[in-house]
Design a protein that fits this description.
disordered C terminus, 6-stranded mixed sheet, alpha/beta, 27% helix, 143 residues, single chain
């Protein structure tokens, strides 16, 4: 695996944040925050899978994800202590790797409190699809 670091100065972007993607392609995965705690595994898997490590899904599921019609921009709010969040983050990251029309941003809600309040995120994981709430699950509270 070869890693390139490209620094971009985007005034409107969340900070800290970084993207993971293949060279010369739009990055489909972004982490807004520092993925530590339970989310560290999500970061490692995103790096491995983007670099070509096999994704552990059956062929039929991969084909369904490849054939999704439309552009999808997912945003998932998580907490570093949430035990359910990595499963959601990792699933959406995999979808973003498989299908170039899927984008996923994993957001550490503790670092972006203004967004959490504005979007009325009461529990995590909380997903938004194309800026609308998807309300995945609401099992864990902010730690």
């Amino acid at each position: 695996m070869h890693i390139n670091v490209v620094e971009k100065d985007d005034a409107g972007a969340r900070r800290p944040a970084f993207t993971i993607g293949e060279k010369d392609k739009d990055a489909g995965i972004q982490f807004a925050g520092i993925p530590m705690g339970h989310e560290f595994t999500s970061l490692v898997l995103a790096l491995l899978q983007t670099g070509g490590h096999p994704i552990k899904l059956d062929d039929a599921t991969i084909e369904q994800i490849k054939n999704l019609d439309g552009n999808f921009h997912f945003e998932t709010y998580f907490s570093l202590s949430c035990q359910n969040c990595p499963e959601v983050v990792q699933a959406l990251n995999v979808m973003a790797i498989i299908n170039p029309r899927i984008r996923h941003v994993a957001i550490d809600g503790a670092l972006f409190q203004a967004e959490v309040e504005e979007r009325q995120v009461m529990a995590v994981p909380m997903m938004f699809l194309n800026a609308s709430t998807a309300k995945a699950t609401a099992r864990a509270a902010w730690a």
